[in-house]
Amino acid sequence: MARSLKKGPYIDEKLMKKISARKPSTGAIKTWARASQIPPEFVGYTFAVHTGKNFEEIFVTEDMVGHRLGEFAPTTKFIKHGGRMQKEAEMAAKAAEIAAAQAAKATEESAKPAAGSKQ
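The chain above was modelled as a monomer; its predicted structure follows.
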């Protein structure tokens, strides 16, 4: 849900103080303020946003203005859907890849002229 226009955007005060005291070229600014919106003053700075386990480095560009810092630092990591069917499909794909590689190698060897013959 959008924040009321009369309140204005939520920007963490501590984060704004850190920005005013630094130059864009000096390292990442560590923050836990994932809910803070990105104002135009943040463009060019690098932030280390906390994901719950570690810090994700984010370089702010003009396209990010108006979004929140947390949108660019995902907290979950998708591994893959699994199960027996998925495993069987992966094994079949791997076998097909190996067979294709062997077939390519065989055609390459048959295309080479014999060592003793002249052309």
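Residues 84 and 90 are 10 Å apart (CA to CA).
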